[in-house]
Predict the 3D structure of the following.
Amino acid sequence: MSDTAQATGADPTGAESTGAEATAGTRRGRGSGGGAARRAERTAVRIETAPFIRRRIPNYEILDEEGLALIEANAERVLEEIGVRFAENPDALKLWKDAGADVRGERVHLPKGLASKLCATAPREYVQRARNPERDVTVGGKSLVLAPVYGPPFVRDIEGGRRYATIEDFRNFVKLGYMSKWVHHSGGTLCEPTDVAVNKRHLDMLLAHMTLTDKPFMGSVTAPERAADSVEMCRILFGADRVGPECFMTSLININSPLVFDATMMGALEVYARAGQATIISPFIVGGAMAPVSVAGTLTQVLAEAMAGIAYSQLINPGSPVIFGAFVTSIDMNSGAPTFGTPEASKILWGAGQLARRLNLPFRSGGALCGSKLPDAQAAYESANTLQAALLGGVNFMLHACGWLEGGLVSGYEKFVLDADQLGILHSLAEGIDLSDNGQAMDAIREVGPGGHYLGCAHTQANFKDAFWRTQVLDYRPYETWAEAGSPDSMTLANARVKKLLGDYQPPALDPGVAEALQAYVDQRKASEPDAFG
Amino acid sequence: MSDTAQATGADPTGAESTGAEATAGTRRGRGSGGGAARRAERTAVRIETAPFIRRRIPNYEILDEEGLALIEANAERVLEEIGVRFAENPDALKLWKDAGADVRGERVHLPKGLASKLCATAPREYVQRARNPERDVTVGGKSLVLAPVYGPPFVRDIEGGRRYATIEDFRNFVKLGYMSKWVHHSGGTLCEPTDVAVNKRHLDMLLAHMTLTDKPFMGSVTAPERAADSVEMCRILFGADRVGPECFMTSLININSPLVFDATMMGALEVYARAGQATIISPFIVGGAMAPVSVAGTLTQVLAEAMAGIAYSQLINPGSPVIFGAFVTSIDMNSGAPTFGTPEASKILWGAGQLARRLNLPFRSGGALCGSKLPDAQAAYESANTLQAALLGGVNFMLHACGWLEGGLVSGYEKFVLDADQLGILHSLAEGIDLSDNGQAMDAIREVGPGGHYLGCAHTQANFKDAFWRTQVLDYRPYETWAEAGSPDSMTLANARVKKLLGDYQPPALDPGVAEALQAYVDQRKASEPDAFG
């Protein structure tokens, strides 16, 4: 794809931002001119991705030292006295025995201090490389990396309603993530492409992440051999010698809570850890079902499970990058449904963040989680509650940051762009308060004085462009203008934005040889075995 | 109204809670029995109001000591060098001069330290009494009192759309507040009853707050004589000797930002301060218009204005209760519209909360603020962003906690019950994490073990009823059930709840003599002058 093709094709007014100013400058620098060039400039797709968030604000610490120490001691007791089960995985049991654990059948009892000692070899933060080096992300410390929804078998938009997801939907969500300024990471299973065989869809998903975006992405975890495919395709894309020394994937390993580590997920973990690729070790908990109904009890179990899983990753390959994960929701005791945006979930997020930081580990939690079936007020309350909690709770890697609907059953097109817009708020909050002379604005207060107006003052003129976060989808029009436009609700406005972004999309350039090699790998692997469904 | 009438009339299943268990007990205690009594019990309206929030969690502190000291020093400079204007208020100017201020025309320059010295006589916290002593609220310290929307000239619901508010709407919102468990305070101008003359509507509003609910309320501030009416009606309701020694109103005094204190608002403040009634001294700021576009500059102005206003209240009557207010939003630089739920607003809220606490003053900010015209996803994102920030930011008195739409132009029926439901989340968050033996749940973790299930375990059975916050309006049904019910969005579900609450409403008992005296006062005052409009 030529540079010119990349820079043409769409109306800049609705695009995310002005990142293509540089592109336009380059074009002028090369002396291109005349009507066609000017038209091309005017219609250039301007794609900008904000750098991952570096917090300049404090984390919210809900527990004091005494509370944290209590939960840590309880987690150590769980690991020692109750133990964890590594199911159908004799190699894991041997590793644990050699490391000093008390192994009885599949049950592994970890003597006090063993798990935390093993966790200590995991890096405090790591860099995941992207195809575009400007989009590399640092995970850990004060950073926050935002990745879209993961896992739903259904999609929803206004026109099509709720329906099974296809590979076309998957590619659309890759494109939406690429076009979204505040989304740093392309994610993984943005939706399940149910029209592709279960044993082959990971290949199509990886190919989409590798070719349709230049943001970092996640690997497959549904079987060890699919993890191996993910590593192999990264070797093609990034160069075989780089995979291992450098990290190109962060993949999601769920724990089978309570306290079970199954062979499939551990098999994928083993592949990634050996290849030096990052994993998120995440208890997946619906409180009241997979953990106690109490916050402190759930935190104890989360800590025990995460420590055991992370310790295992370090047994496989000391120093391999790993994230302390916590996906925790509550259960509605009337219906049995999982609930989102609840106070219990926020408290667990905050507490788990503190526990992860005390282990010097990157932390994953949060997201625009909701139980609502529609991108309506319920969805937004629930999502905003979680997004706010996650920013203040020190989350370093946020999966499901946009697009999640109906308890994770549905990837929502409109929900994606509504959430993605809110992610801009997290960026701005994380900047903290500017206390420079310009931030203090004493000259402005003096200039305007009692009863004056700031709109025209010098300080406002100099700062207004960047002073406030700006939405790309919410409606601020006066009532009358809005009513004349048909009184659109947010869902309707979001639908228009989805269409605009997909219409404007153009893929980032990729070496044709690499693209061919990736396609050839996918074709060969697909041809090597029959389709499997379910 | 008889006790029996109070306890009959509605289906308990949809009501907020089970507060009327006591009523039922009393009835049984008096020996009432038989079929009619049992039917009455079964159909009793069960109204419960949660006690105001007492935070057991830390506040979020975005600024460090250095930043706070910088803003304090800047605010002192603003007060000394720029000064504030007390417009058309010669008595105020004399008071200021006597207190040591440098008064030039209407401009009052406060020497360094004067404002904070005067603020020191204001109480750190105070109790506002309600007609029902169980609904007294403490304002300040670790408390959070929630009051509904204030001020809109319009209302909106699904059936009627957006329309001018009437006194019937006003009474409906009083009733909704009374029926809402998580709303502690009946508020003030829940909407403007535009069908009543401007110079008389405060009488009808007060009468509604005094007779249709037993929660605390706010007084009129639109003219000093209306404030005097408010005090007089409190004397009738609570007893003349109690008003003064005790506080029965908390009323909203807006500052005319930047740095102007107009005679109308100050006149109302003077009435309330002399009568020992509480006021909220609140800069009302659209950032970029009434304050600098920067957060630190706005905080400086907010602090200067609030200190000057609070100091003035203490000049009028040292020790009179007063709240440090901050109503701050941003402006959309494209349309000029105010915006809500923005990161700038949250940062200002957090910073202002810290500044208020350093002055040992109660703090007012936040609310379910939004710019959206509908109770849709936009409204909910914006509202949730502000509610979350306000809880963590240490707000003590939250006006607009429910019902606000369209930048404060509209009181929304459906929005009211959606927000009021979310307020339950704030209660639960504020409880913090239970670290008791029961909270730790070690026995449960041991009982269930690896691969087990918590739903049936003893700890879950003992705790599930109170373990999780429960919504009264959000939808957790499975997709199929929800789709069969017509796929209702949150607005539709909220509309049904509005109807249920208004249908179930019955007024709390009031001494008939007091009710008559209040009505007579209103009638006499209305007859004493002609209607004024506009």
